[in-house]
Write a structure and sequence with these properties.
- The protein has 83 residues and is an all-alpha fold.
- It has one domain.
């Protein structure tokens, strides 16, 4: 009886790296920290958590936000962008 040091496939590793009950959590499978970090970064990017965090670094008054949207719409209309 011989035991082979068989490595897990990429699909198997992806399945095992999922943490149940934690949408942004990642398990480290077979000590492969690089794969776990890459998976975690992808999950963070796809969830939009970092984008929301950067957006909240400073407070924007509602009137300033409306003004920004209005100016952007005027710019697009004058330059025929988005058609």
């Amino acid at each position: 009886m011989s035991f082979k040091n068989k490595r897990m496939s990429k699909k198997g590793k992806a399945f095992k790296s999922i943490l149940p009950g934690s949408p942004l959590g990642v398990n480290v499978v077979e000590g492969d920290i690089h794969y776990a970090l890459q998976t975690w970064k992808r999950k963070m990017k796809d969830s939009g958590v970092m984008k929301e965090l950067y957006k909240r670094t400073e407070y924007t008054k509602p009137s300033k936000a409306r003004r920004k949207v209005l100016l952007n719409a005027i710019y697009k209309q004058q330059n025929n962008i988005g058609n």
